[in-house]
Design a protein that fits this description.
The complex is a heterodimer of chains A (302) and B (667).
Chain A (H helix, E strand, L loop, with lengths): L1 H25 L5 H6 L3 H11 L15 H12 L7 H27 L5 H45 L5 H35 L5 H13 L3 H26 L5 H47 L1
Chain B lengths: L1 H18 L10 E10 L4 E11 L6 E7 L11 H9 L5 H9 L3 E11 L3 E5 L5 E2 L12 E10 L4 E11 L8 E3 L2 E4 L5 E2 L1 E3 L2 E3 L14 E10 L3 E4 L2 E9 L2 E11 L4 E4 L3 E9 L2 E10 L7 H18 L7 E6 L9 E3 L2 E4 L13 H15 L9 H20 L2 E10 L2 E12 L3 H10 L15 H23 L1 H14 L7 H11 L5 H8 L7 E10 L3 E5 L6 E5 L5 E9 L7 E7 L4 E6 L5 E8 L3 E6 L15 E3 L5 H22 L3
Classes of the chains: A mainly alpha (302), B alpha+beta (667).
Chain lengths: 302, 667
């Protein structure tokens, strides 16, 4: 709930100025009924041109059930988080930092497995903030390296291989494979840093790099961590597919339907955020189980 | 493959008879007999040409100007390449392609002239001089002139005998080769145009296109047997040239350029266009095997263009038309040539994008302006591109209706996941307005292409602004009147190289009102047109008090009529262009009143005092003025309603929340 509320409050704070701009722009227009029904292309292109800043992030894809989600998935593939302007970029960075702060508390909560106390939660969050920030920075650098170094290199290699090909489907599938490889790399990096955070807290390490080293050893020495994350990602994709389908069916043109759409969107987001938190708890559980098994094996050997 | 090739030849040969129909072509000015041989490995062409040039001006000349356009790709110092590197913040792909993989040039090996009754055949190679007529760039060799041994008076015929070697550049715009595919455009020495003011022969610039006299072409090309060839003109013969080669011969009357394309990988399809009173046209499509699924789309688009433009303006005068579907990576892009145009389509397209119909209709529409009118594209690009964009959007709207907004996810070269947003309709003109809004203040329309401040200014003033001006004219004058104007313009200036004033004269001749003001503001000054309703207010009439009457009836009184309202509608001219507009006022009791405003003032206030308040006010309620860059501010209610903002605020909030959550996986 803390994570969800953070998300709502944070997004609402950024959305409010846009809503006021929108309202000031549309509320009196004779086109407002048309705009309430479906996005008018003429209105949309004029709005983003005249109002700039956040208005530039308004686009027809938001009208589609899957549009908002697909736009964000594309960001994961390409890493161009600044493509929506500085306001969104800074909001995103601040939000990630806030999440990094909360992660320390959440992971401690799962590792200690005691009843929830806000005081303890925030205390742990503050205690591990330094390490979580270090992980965040390091992870950011690694991902930046992937998006700005490895990915262009990979696609440049793809281009050099496919430049002589006149088979468009072949070129298309090779490019698709390139994107899949990029997302796989991102997935591995995220998994490594997830377990580094868990190891740091569970093993009470004082060095983030040591924890990261142990995480690399843990993740690459067994299949379960990747498997678990793949499973959780699969569930999230399934959930998003169902949600996107529902959003595609609902046409929010009247007030009631807009409210219904809003509520369903919030339910979906709550579930998605819960999935992320559940991901942390299952990762903690998996790590603890694996460590316990290791201990037993060692004892047996002794 | 052989069977298909055979069919292709049969079709083309069959079309010769149709071509012999009488189409009142004017007498030729510059005719070309060319024999060329392709070195398929190096993509080099060795050619011999005879130009039969007739001085149809009223001035005497002792020199002849020639275009050698392939020299634009000769080195980095040419005007074309310099402009490319100066005008683009990031250099286009073809720049590197030409630099790294293959330069292009047109080298004149020898040149002789002969003028019956004036002088005998004589070698004039020594007199050849390059003339960078536009920018003085001595490194540019795209224009040359030769000195004649005698002065050619009006009506004099001059024969030019030229030997040349043309190297096609790699993946260049409008010409070049890519692997074993080639499109030979601007590949042979071609005469400039002698006008009353002298020779009109511009260098090859980055954005400008072409201008030449009409003439008859007879071109023979020798190339490998397995190459499938398409060209301007009708294939009149094919003979074996030995050693795995063949010679194909094409002829056409009254065209002003000649292009040919060849590749062993082309596939061929054909159709015949037939429609009530219009003459039949043989259509041939040379397409990439991968684009088999688009064959019908290509033909449908070409047929729709021939049908609509033929009915609206003038019948397509040639017996055949060749559509060339380019390889996706060729870089040549959609381009018009006489009786042949190139077009392309991506392997994956969004269903709402109307690909490949959009490009196909556009290039096919050029056949009616670039092809039949033949105005100077370098000096007055808007007369070709602008009219073409206007007629293209008209044709697409008529044939296909509005499209949908779409997006190509993860788009990169030859890759993308197309997604159509079905509920977001996009009129064919919406993108034109969008571009005009962004670039309208850049420069003005009637300017040589190379003189625009930058590429967006060229695009806007050659393509978008004139198209919107024409749409505005059509709506203001009415479709029947404007159709008559266009038909008269095309018919009157068929094959005559008209200038802007010719078009303006035709408009004013048929228009009930003088349109010079609109032309002046669009052709000669930068700026956009934008009118807005900025405020609609009403307040109850406060009545009046004081002394009223005279003499014995003079008395202190207070007069109130609680049922009367005073409403005000505030209008603004937010753009530079002044144009008369209509205002529709709707009152609460349902009364509607139409008013006229000359649009001259920056601010205009209309007041109304009556029982009903103004409910809403709309400028240009029938959306006639397509030059208006923002139609959303054209109408305003007196009272606000938050539903639309709420609906879009919610959608945007959801996207942002999801974005934050997506980003949070990195935390």
């Amino acid at each position: 709930m803390v994570f969800y509320l953070s998300n709502v409050i944070f997004a609402a704070a950024v959305a409010l100025p846009l809503f006021l701009t929108l309202n000031g722009q549309i509320a009196y227009l004779t086109m407002r009924s048309e705009i309430a029904q479906h996005p008018s292309y003429a209105w949309w292109s004029g709005f983003r041109f005249h109002d700039g800043c956040l208005a530039e992030t308004m686009r027809p894809s938001l009208n589609s059930g899957f549009g908002p989600m697909l736009d964000n998935v594309e960001l994961l593939f390409r890493g161009n988080f600044n493509s929506f302007g500085l306001t969104i970029l800074f909001a995103g960075l601040a939000y990630i930092f806030l999440m990094a702060f909360l992660n320390g508390g959440a992971l401690s909560q799962f590792i200690e497995d005691r009843g929830f106390s806000m005081q303890r939660f925030l205390g742990h969050s503050g205690h591990y903030l330094r390490h979580m920030s270090a992980f965040l920075t390091l992870q950011g650098l690694v991902l930046w390296g992937i998006y700005r170094g490895i990915s262009p290199l990979l696609f440049s290699m793809i281009d050099s291989v496919t430049v002589a090909s006149v088979s468009a489907p072949l070129v298309w599938f090779v490019n698709l494979a390139g994107y899949i490889l990029v997302i796989k790399l991102v997935f591995i990096v995220v998994t490594l840093f997830d377990y580094a955070r868990i190891i740091l807290i569970a093993e009470k390490k004082t060095s983030s790099l040591t924890a990261l080293g142990l995480s690399v050893k843990f993740v690459f020495s067994r299949l379960q961590p990747m498997g678990l994350n793949a499973l959780l990602a699969g569930i999230a994709i399934l959930m998003s597919t169902i949600a996107g389908t529902i959003f595609s069916i609902i046409h929010p043109s009247g007030l009631f339907m807009v409210i219904l759409s809003f509520l369903l969107q919030q339910v979906y987001l709550f579930l998605l955020i819960s999935m992320r938190v559940a991901c942390y708890s299952t990762e903690v559980l998996l790590y603890q189980q694996q460590m316990a098994e290791n201990q037993q094996v060692k004892k047996r050997k002794h | 493959m052989k069977l298909k090739l055979g069919c292709w030849h049969f079709i083309l040969l069959g079309s010769v008879a149709v071509n012999s129909a009488d189409y009142s072509f004017p007498p030729p000015t510059a005719s070309y007999n060319i024999t060329a041989k392709l070195d398929a490995v190096d993509k080099r062409i060795d050619g011999e040409e005879e130009i039969i040039w007739i001085n149809r001006s009223n001035r005497t000349t002792d020199e002849i100007y020639l275009h050698l356009y392939l020299n634009a790709f000769k080195n980095l110092s040419t005007t074309f390449m310099s402009e490319v590197s100066n005008r683009f913040s990031s250099l286009p792909d073809y720049f590197y392609s030409v630099c790294k993989n293959g330069w292009g040039y047109c080298d004149v090996r020898s040149i002789a002239v002969e003028a019956p009754g004036l002088f005998e055949r004589m070698d004039v190679m020594e007199s050849l001089q390059f003339d960078p007529i536009d920018d003085g760039n001595v490194a540019d060799e795209t224009v040359c002139r030769i000195r004649l041994p005698g002065a050619a008076a009006p009506g004099q015929v001059v024969h030019l005998y030229i030997s040349f070697t043309s190297q096609l550049p790699h993946r260049a715009p409008r010409t070049g080769y890519y692997q074993d595919y080639l499109v030979a455009g601007q590949w042979f020495p071609k005469c400039g145009v002698l006008e009353e003011q002298g020779w009109n022969c511009h260098q090859y610039h980055n954005v400008s296109e072409f201008f030449a006299d009409y003439g008859d072409y007879d071109v023979s090309i020798t190339l490998p047997k397995n190459y499938i060839v398409g060209a301007s003109g009708v294939l009149v013969g094919e003979t074996s040239a030995g050693a795995g080669e063949k010679t194909v011969r094409f002829q056409e009357k009254c065209i002003h350029d000649f292009v040919w394309t060849a590749s062993p990988k082309f596939r061929v399809a054909e159709r015949t266009f037939e429609y009530v009173d219009l003459p039949p046209v043989k259509l041939a499509l040379l397409y990439q095997p991968i684009n088999q699924k688009y064959v019908d789309s290509y033909f449908d688009a070409a047929i729709a263009t021939l049908k609509h433009l033929g009915s609206w303006y003038t019948p397509y005068p040639y017996s055949h038309l060749t559509i060339v579907d380019l390889p996706e990576k060729s870089n040549a892009g959609g381009m018009e040539y006489p009786t042949l145009f190139t077009t392309d389509v991506s392997w994956q397209v969004a269903s709402g994008s109307q690909a490949p119909m959009g490009v196909t209709v556009h290039e096919c529409t050029h056949q009616f302006f670039y092809g039949i009118i033949g105005n100077n594209e370098a000096e007055h690009a808007w007369m070709d591109e602008g009219l073409t964009v206007y007629a293209t959007s008209r044709c697409l709207n008529t044939a296909y209706g509005p499209g949908n907004a779409w997006k190509m996810y993860l788009a990169r070269d030859s890759f993308g996941l197309p997604t159509t947003f079905k509920h977001v309709h996009k009129d064919q003109r919406d993108w034109i307005v969008e571009n005009q809004r962004e670039r309208g203040a850049l420069d003005f329309m009637d300017k040589p292409s190379w003189a625009y401040v930058n590429y967006p200014a060229y695009r806007n003033n050659a393509y978008e602004k004139p198209a919107l001006m024409l749409w505005t004219l059509e709506n203001v004058l009415g479709e029947p009147v404007f159709n008559r104007i266009m038909r008269e313009y095309v018919t009157r200036f068929r094959f005559k190289h008209p200038k802007p004033q010719d078009f303006i004269n035709v408009v004013n001749e048929f228009s009930p009102q003088d349109m010079n003001s609109l032309f002046d503001q669009t052709l000669h000054t930068p700026g956009v047109l934008d009118y807005a309703v900025v405020r609609v207010i009403s307040q109850r009439d406060k009545g009046t008090k004081g002394y009223f009457g005279r003499g014995a009836e003079l008395a202190l009184a207070e007069k109130n009529d609680p049922g009367t309202w005073t409403s005000q509608v505030h209008l603004e001219r937010q753009g530079d262009i002044v144009f008369p507009v209509e205002l529709l006022i709707t009152f609460e009791d349902g009364e509607k009143r139409r008013l006229q405003w000359d649009g001259k003032e920056s601010i205009k206030i209309f007041s109304f005092t009556q029982k009903a308040r103004v409910e809403k006010a709309e400028i240009d309620p029938d959306h006639n003025i397509w030059l208006d860059v923002d139609v959303t501010n054209n109408g305003r209610y007196r009272e606000k309603n938050h539903l639309a903002a709420f609906r879009w605020g919610v959608q945007w909030l959801f996207w942002l929340q999801h974005l934050l959550e997506t980003a949070a996986i990195f935390s």
